[in-house]
Design goal:
By secondary structure, the protein is an alpha+beta fold. It has eleven helices and ten strands. It has two domains: 77 residues; 238 residues, no CATH class.
């Protein structure tokens, strides 16, 4: 019984903290040449503490020592702050921001790149004023590239059926930096709201990403022309301006492309409860169908099939009415 108690109260906590600490050091801002060595040293130290606990009668001593070392590590890790002044990848170079004057919201640095390939493009930005009184639609765009379980979620706001503003919550990466979901737990990336023209965010995924190709679906949300949509949009604006003033870190679990959307939705009463279908973002459209947030006159599989927009986006390409054309024939929100 004492051995079981030791395993539960000592082994698992110290093993978990050792694993976390090792990764935190490996993905820290220490010099790249030093990080693997220090991370390995900490992992060895944690393993030695566990062995000491189980084979020494003075088991409290190594626990105290581990607690002191871990506290020092935690203090160091907590001191790592996000920065604005990095050599950012071109697609993350400019932060959007907004000015609000009554119902008039002007977005600056709306991205609308001219793509030749996924990685060859001419950066273009513009500013545009949107009238909140004309906000009449909210759409969810889901992009898949690795099976049904994982999707990137984009929210698009429509104004009077003619102007659309898409927002994609992503990692802000430095030039030549690659994405790792594990690194995303450890302060490796900035949090970035890509505020863009749909001809950028959608067309990039339907027309230019080839390795792997992406399947993109657009779902119309019910009850979009309401105070809920206004509050939802303004909460996005609040966050966009906050990030322009003070950077934050991206976190793979807590501030990803769907958990952040869920956080914004909680500005409204009666928000949807947490579900595994939200954590596995590819099932978000199905979850919305179950919650009757999208058209429920169709079975979900038929709704999904009819909501795929790849062909329409390729045909529309650079057309000025791109957003209208990709919505032709889509199931109405109901």
């Amino acid at each position: 019984m004492r051995r079981v108690t030791r395993v539960l109260l000592i082994f698992f906590p110290i093993a978990a903290l050792t694993a976390w600490g090792t990764l935190a050091i490996y993905y820290s801002n220490l010099p790249a040449a030093v990080r693997p060595f220090v991370a390995g040293l900490f992992a060895t130290f944690g393993a030695a503490v566990l062995a000491w606990c189980f084979f020494s009668k003075y088991s409290w001593r190594p626990i105290v020592l581990f607690a002191i070392v871990f506290a020092i590590l935690l203090a160091y890790w907590s001191s790592i702050e996000p920065k604005q002044d990095r050599d950012w990848a071109p697609e993350y170079a400019r932060l959007a921001y907004a000015t609000v004057n009554g119902d008039q919201v002007t977005l600056h640095n709306i991205r609308n790149f001219d793509y030749r390939t996924e990685t060859d493009f001419t950066p273009r930005y513009y500013a545009k004023t949107f009238d909140l009184a004309q906000l009449d639609s909210v759409d969810i765009i889901a992009s898949y590239w690795a099976g049904d379980a994982i999707a990137h979620i984009i929210v698009s706001f429509g104004f009077a059926g003619k102007d659309f503003l898409a927002v994609s919550i992503e990692t802000r990466r430095e030039r030549n930096e690659t994405y790792s979901s594990i690194a995303g737990f450890f302060k490796q990336y900035g949090l970035f709201y890509v505020v863009a023209d749909e001809r950028d965010l959608v067309r990039l995924r339907t027309n230019y990403r080839k390795d792997p190709p992406e399947d993109v679906y657009l779902y119309r949300i019910r009850g979009s022309a309401s105070d809920n949509a206004r509050r939802f949009f303004l909460d996005y604006i609040r966050k966009i301006n906050s990030l322009a003033e003070k950077p934050e870190f991206y976190n793979t679990l807590t501030t990803n492309c769907i958990t952040s959307v869920l956080t914004h939705s909680r500005v409204n009463p009666g928000s949807h409860p947490l579900s595994w279908k939200i954590l596995l973002s590819g099932y978000v459209p199905q979850y919305l169908h179950e919650r009757q947030a999208v058209d429920t006159s169709l079975p979900f599989e038929e709704l999904r099939s009819r909501s795929r927009i790849n062909a329409a986006a390729r045909a529309a390409d650079k057309a000025a009415d791109f957003s209208q054309r990709i919505r032709v024939g889509l199931p109405a929100p109901g």
